[in-house]
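<purpose> Linking amino acid order to shape
<body> The protein record starts here
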Amino acid sequence: MKKVLLALSGGLDSSIAAFLLKKSGYEVIGITFNFYKNVNYKETIENSEKIADFLDIKLLKREYYEEFNEKIVKEFIKSYNMGITPSPCILCDEIMKIGKLYNVANEFGIDYIATGHYADKYYDENLDRYFLKRSNDIKKDQTYMLYRIEPKILEKMLFPLQNYTKEKLRNIAKENKFPNFNQKDSQGICFAENGYIEFLNRNSEKIIKSGDIIDENGNYLGKHRGYQLYTIGQRRGLGINSGRPYFVIDIIPALNKIVVGDYDKLYRKKIKVNNYKLYVDIVGNLENIIGRPRFSSNGNLGKIYIENKNLYFEYYEANTQNTDGQHIVFYKDDIIIGGGIISGAKDGI
């Protein structure tokens, strides 16, 4: 019997993933990671233990507080202090969740690893390589979050939820009397249970203080509560009394100022991509690629190319969805071929 190590959070998705894998004949071993000491993870441990008992599977537990704090939390705070908007969950999936899952599986000689993500994979015979592929449930598809997973790890991964919708999972849970069949989906950042603003106010190494909101010409329009608490493209919560809408178009940490302007100032056609991952070779321009600059985006067509050793993505049509610090993921049809961190969006390169 093949063994599979499953990341078990105690939530509905990972619980049903364990159920389906066991039903398919695998020996399922659950593992629960503890990355940050707060109320969320206390609940995670308790819920995981309940599900492991319910399904009669072994449960491992691992703690990585210091590494998580150094590689995820501190980078999260550092990014906001630099005036950019990070995506900590993507890096956490790569470095901590999937990375540690893979390492523990190798430590114990376990055949496969699995998660409760809505995703699929595809094997390309010509390239002799696995690629991430969108799941059947496009609304819940999570391939965007997993784009940084290397092919060698992907080869070992199983995605038991690839052909399921959330509604179907709830029906399975209810029919089989799962203790968490009506549990709500988790939302937000795991280490910021009261929201990122409260977290930054409490943990930022740099003092968050009020500063000026100005327009493009330097005219004073009002006060902000701390530049770290705003993001490019934001409209709500600016506190500007004006008969016209304003959007955040730039953040200047050195001056503690936020620049606002018209919506059309957010349009970008070309962006630089840093810290990227590419799973195909790029010779010249790679055309007709879908670039998703945020999780909620359906993506926009464009081309990938390398210039002076830098990677760029140029949209065929400009859009307003790009923010420095966020991740852009590249798809060829339903297959992920790479991605990276957006840079230079606010400068309109």
